[in-house]
Amino acid sequence: MVCILGIESSANKVGVGIVRDGEVLSNPRATYHAPLGQGFRPPETAAHHRQNVVRIVIDALQQANIKNPQNEIDGIAYTKGPGMGAPLQVGAIVARTLSQLWSIPLYPVNHCIGHIEMGRLITKAENPVVLYVSGGNTQVISYSNQRYRIFGETLDIAVGNCLDRFARLVDLPNDPFPAYNLEQLALKGKKLIALPYTVKGMDLSLSGILSYVEHKGLQMIRTGECTAADLCFSLQETIFAMLVEITERAMAHCNSSEVLIVGGVGSNKRLQAMMSIMAEQRGAKLFATDERFCIDNGAMIAQVGWHMANAKMIIDLEECSTTQLQSCAKAAERYYFWMFVLLIVPAIINCFSLAISFITIVHVRRLKSVTEAITSSIHWLARTADRVGLGISAHNALMEYAKKKNLIKLIPNIEYRNNNLNFRKLRNTDEQLLI
């Protein structure tokens, strides 16, 4: 039998869990609660973890009835990322220390995979479409060919972040956590208010609805058009409807008959009820867990470490670091592909534009003068750049050439507009490699 101790410290919760062959022996944790109206910051969160982590390790060992951890524990797993840098370091330092002290292997674990594997362990779901909703993540995931495939995700902020921020705006406390208090207040809501609904395929956007309730919603509360409970109720209903829609679309794409909800927001009873209705209408089955395993905990990290130990993986100590945005092989491939598209291709176009411009200058016989050639080239280049938002370096090079040849005064003023291309920020969690 393989027994693994797992340490989770990626956000405002520090937890230690012990798992032995699929059985959770212990799973204590402590939560940092920020002052009223504030979110948790990395320095204060890390200080909280440092003050409590040793006590929680001792509690986990005692609850699991582990008398001699050096002989009874087969490995230490810890959250490598993604998460907040300073809190992650606390868990990593403790894990490395215990690994060296007890002379047992060390396993760095992806936080997102920890949530999914714990959900599968507790619910016994076989191959579900996974809705992963938490304070920092919102993704629809399915497992195929040794990888978790991301079918849809938030384009901006996560569901938990959106709910927590609005909960603080209406002065809901952070204890036990803002989204839970918002859920309780939403039960008293009686009026459904129309809010922005943004779904794009299997992706969704939440920044618009948050901005709306932050400004227009609070104004409606002040004028008496609705109550805070009505707005919490409407916010939940709208966001959860968006989540159900993208999940159902992914289930149809995968022809899946199972859906699993994981992550802190996954413990929301209303979300589970709405997802259950959708699953029942499709002849599918919903799998969900309660707050013991939905919310960040050490047992979920230990469970992934257990898989790694059974796979006979050996991780060098030098590789056991932390990263706030943990990468994986497939995500790196996509990153380098888009880096080529967005950086190398424009550079090639710039060089091509410059070459065409100087070729035009060389063939001056076809034009009346060198001045006309340069002017025509710059006009052509500016029009091209204006259309595609590229050609800046080539344009600047020609302008410098014209200045050196004292031709700049003959060139009419050209209004150059640089189209600022807002490229979507690539996240390393697009696809996670199951270790």
TrEMBL record:
Catalytic activity reads:
L-threonylcarbamoyladenylate + adenosine(37) in tRNA = N(6)-L-threonylcarbamoyladenosine(37) in tRNA + AMP + H(+)
Residues involved in substrate binding: Y132, V133, S134, G135, G136, D164, A179, E183, N268
Q: Which domain of life is it from?
A: Eukaryota
* Cofactor dependency: a divalent metal cation
What keywords sit in the KW lines?
Acyltransferase, Cytoplasm, Membrane, Metal-binding, Nucleus, Transferase, Transmembrane, Transmembrane helix, tRNA processing
Answer whether the UniProt record assigns the keyword Nucleus to this protein. Answer: yes
EC id? 2.3.1.234
Q: What is its main location?
A: cytoplasm
Per the annotation, how and in what number is the cofactor bound?
Binds 1 divalent metal cation per subunit.
Q: What is the enzyme's class at the highest EC level?
A: transferase
Q: Name one GO biological process term.
A: tRNA threonylcarbamoyladenosine modification
Please name the InterPro entries in this protein's record: ATPase_NBD, Gcp-like_dom, KAE1/TsaD, Kae1_archaea_euk
Q: Which Gene Ontology cellular component annotation is one that this UniProt entry carries?
A: EKC/KEOPS complex
The UniProt similarity line reads: Belongs to the KAE1 / TsaD family.
- Its protein name is N(6)-L-threonylcarbamoyladenine synthase
User: What organism is the protein native to?
Assistant: Onchocerca volvulus
